[in-house]
Every structure is written in structure tokens, then in C-alpha cells.
Amino acid sequence: MSIQYESRYAIGPNEAKTFDTQKLRDAFLLQDLFTPEKIQFVYTHYERHMVGSAVPVKEILELTSIDPLKSEFFLSRRELGVVNVGGAGIVEVDGVQHELDNKEALYVGAGDKKVTFASKDATKPAKFYLNSAPAHHAFPDKKVTRETANVLKMGSPETCNQREIYQLIVREVVQTCQLQMGLTILKPGSVWNTMPAHQHDRRMEVYLYLDLPADQAVAHFMGEPHETRVIWVKNEQVVVSPPWSIHSGAGSSNYAFVWGMSGENLDYADMDKYGPADLT
């Protein structure tokens, strides 16, 4: 089995200002990431962060290196974050099995050689969402559930952004080199995934939108604070957010999303905030 991949090169704010809707979507939106019996990756040139998926149904899928990495095995100089957004599954790392239920996570450290993905029930296949970043140190593998995550309760019904943030792979929970991942679940009646909007020039971020009904969508806002753009996103689609861009969104119903970040700063709260009155 060969891993499918594509590269997306970094785009600056001045270039993005000239994009029409289709160019914006082509540059920053990943639409068909989850394909049965395949491992897929998009190699971004923002912090060399990789976004991918593994969807085993009847087969066991093995994570192997790809040509851009120029390495013997995938995690030779990388770390990996896995969040299962489908049915129950198993991630095996160098002979050690980790069972992941829906919305459970696994951190896999640099230096691990053989990683495989399997579903426990082919009629309800696992969907493993993958984020990977370069790593300079080998930290231990660790499974994280919503019960063992660091949980933040944010927002309010009055501002339509009441939500719970599950910090799954962050330094307070798991030792990592630069990768961070988590899950945000909005309460019914709330639609704003983060407001005030923010940017962090020291980290890039990716958003996987989940649990969104087929006839609903999220308006994902990006761009510089005074040069904002919008991308309409459907269920199980991903937006790549450059370090120079804000990221915020509002859905036509409540939903959840998995966020992933990499960069030079592991301080989750290190961000520059922009309220509704600051945006244009």
C-alpha cells in the first residue's frame, strides 16, 4: 500500500489578498481527506506541518515514509498526533496496541518505526485524523481520553460561543516537541467556535470540522484582522490556517472541531485577540 500525498506551499498575506473564492479554497481547504482503506497526507510548508488520515475498514494500514521526508521510516525525525473521529480502532506502535474510541487521542513520539491502523468493526470503521510535525527529541507515546484531557469551559449562551475545549495533546498533558492537538465541542445554540478571533504568529493551525449535519455548514473566517476572508466548510473538511491569519468560525448549527498546531511556542494562551469591533 502506498500513501497518497500532496504538497501545499506557504502563501503570504499579500498574495492571499488577490485570491478569488476558488483560489482561496484551493490553497487552504482540504475537502476529501477521509477515504476508505487509504492513508492520505497533505504536506504543508507552514512549519512543515502534515495533515492526514487513515481509514482502515477490512485492511490494516501501515504508516510508511513518503518521498518528501527522505527518511527510512515516517517518524524518523517527526512526531505524530492521532485523534479517532470514527468507530473504535486500534493503533499499534512497534508491537504495542492502543485502542482508541471516538474522540480519543494518541501521541506517538519520534523514533517509533512501525505504526499501523485497524478498525475493530468493519461496519463502523475508525477514522484516524493525523497531524505530524518535525521533532528534535523522542518523547514517550501516550493515549489521552476526554477524561484525562485538560478541559476548559469557555464562552456563554449570551455570546453564542458556549463550548468545552479538551486539550488532548498539550504540554500540561503530554510532552511534545512542538505538536499540539485538541477537541472543541460547542453547546446546542452556540455557533462561534472562538470569539474574540485570534492569531498567533508563532504557530500555525489546522481545523477539522466535525459532527456537522449534511445540510449545514461553517463559515470559517481567516485573513489578516483588517483583511478578512471567509471559506464555507462542510463536515469532515479541514482548513489550514497560516500564522499570519486569524481563525474563527460560525456554523449554521452547533458542531465540533479538532484543532492542531505546530510552531516555536507551546504556550496555548500565547495569542493576539481581536474582538468583533476590531475586525474588518
Describe this structure in words.
It is a single chain. With 280 residues, the chain is mainly β. It has two helices and 23 strands. The protein has helices spanning 13-16, 21-28; strands spanning 4-8, 29-30, 39-44, 50-54, 61-63, 78-84, 89-93, 96-100, 105-108, 115-119, 128-134, 142-144, 150-154, 163-169, 180-186, 197-199, 203-210, 218-224, 227-233, 238-241, 248-251, 256-263, 272-274. A seven-stranded mixed beta sheet has the order 1-3-4-11-6-9-12, with no helix packed on it. A seven-stranded antiparallel beta sheet has the order 2-20-17-22-15-14-13. Strand 7 (89-93) and strand 8 form a beta hairpin. The chain is globular and about 55 Å long. The model has no long low-confidence stretch (mean pLDDT 95).
Write the layout of secondary structure elements.
Elements: E1 4-8, H1 13-16, H2 21-28, E2 29-30, E3 39-44, E4 50-54, E5 61-63, E6 78-84, E7 89-93, E8 96-100, E9 105-108, E10 115-119, E11 128-134, E12 142-144, E13 150-154, E14 163-169, E15 180-186, E16 197-199, E17 203-210, E18 218-224, E19 227-233, E20 238-241, E21 248-251, E22 256-263, E23 272-274
Parallel strand pairs: 1-3
Antiparallel strand pairs: 2-20, 3-4, 4-11, 5-10, 6-9, 6-11, 7-8, 7-10, 9-12, 13-14, 14-15, 15-22, 16-23, 17-20, 17-22, 18-19, 18-21
